[in-house]
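Table S2 (continued). Query chain:
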Amino acid sequence: MSRLSTRRLLFLYLAVFFLFSIYGFYLNIMAPRSLSLAVVLALGAFNGAYSMLYPWLLIRHSTPWVWITGIGHGFLASAMGWFSAYVALQATSHRLGLIASPFVTAQALWITLVASYICFIIFIRKQATDAIRIQNELELAHGIQQTLVHSSIAPALATRSTASPAPANA
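Corresponding output:
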């Protein structure tokens, strides 16, 4: 997969983004009071964007960077949880606009999960299509090779069998 261009991996990155952007909505559910939609979306977008580092690092770079990113992500997730609780308790969230009610949160969770699933399916379908095309090309090449080898070996075997001396016992 390291040979795939970033453009080819776009749907994988988007799938990971949408999958992990639900963290903003999770924090809204866990907060003592509902957060503003702007805060929830910002937390989700930040976590989704940060989570896109994982597939990028796993595909393009070595494993130690993934561990470092994971440890950093743990600290960031804790900080985002603390921030959401602080904002909810200070009631500053309500001054930031529309409140992310449980209904809005549930709908947004569903939409982001479906978007993630769709992106994963698009990525997998593109990869499967390429794999099937390559498999068909390999089978065709194998068939051509078998035909060429068989047609070049058969006359050589026939010539060898007629030119070989008779057994001494005969």
